[in-house]
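Team,

Forwarding the record for the chain on the shared tracking sheet. I've put the sequence and predicted structure together so nobody has to dig through attachments.
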Amino acid sequence: MIKKIITGNILTKLMALVMAVALWLYAINRHTGDVTEVVKLNILVPDGVAIVEQGAEEITIHLRGPQNIIDGLTSMIKEQKIQATYTIEESRTKIEDQEKQTILISREHLNIPNDVKLMGLYPDKVDVVLSKLQQKRLKVNVQKKGEPAIGYSVANEFVFPSEIEVTGPLNTLKEASSINTVPIDIDGITIEQNRTFPWRIGIDKKITVTRGDKNISVPVECKEDVRVWLQIVEQQDTKFFEKIKIKVMSPADYPYEIKLQDEFTNIKVKGPKLVLDKLNNENILLYIDVTSLKPPGPYKQPIKYVLPKNVELFDKLPEAHLDIRETVR
């Protein structure tokens, strides 16, 4: 009887088993999800040690797990709540200059739930170069961005203190002689900003060094900031004017007739660019004073000039050649 129960209807029972397994696999797959995302790689180092070079700052991970958990992980990854963290243990032999290590990344370095499987990650090996930390005083360079308003320029800059103490990798500080401030925005400034200085400016906490054909930015620490003064001035320029008429200045009752060899001359002036851009021939007065001259001639007289405010003569003017004679009555 028992044997008949067990062996009877084998085909039906086999089909039922296959359907049950298929239904189980369908249910499992339906409620299982996959996700491939990029996460940040954090490498922690012992006190007194810094990372000079890091082969990768992000890794790509492929995760699989219950769909509801995977959905939550996707949001957490976008919010950077899921990251890879590797801690480099203190070396038995102290790092004197710099040391290269290769670290292996695995599941234990990811803060993911136990129900989630790590199906793969790339890269799983990352090269890092470690260096001993050192202190050094570096010259401060003022870093600017933007341009002053048209017609203005930065004539001088002053920073105090001119040097600050920086903590960074020994190998990097050996090559460094200066460090930049954070960029100062000078876009559109004029002389009106001169009264607002000094500005308190922070330090850009990185030093750029050359490694082969690459420029590498190495982070450093600095607890100081600086005060910066900029001297904004009107931009100076020159301008050339041709054929300016020379006027003859004489008393109203002057009894002589003046004949100029050249009634026109050229002049080159200098001054604020904004002023020169608006300047034309009518704004310049050139003249000779003949009040004290009497026949016979000829004479050589200096050409005198009257220029607008803040505008100066750039090149010396030539002498005027003239003849003088009695007025014909």
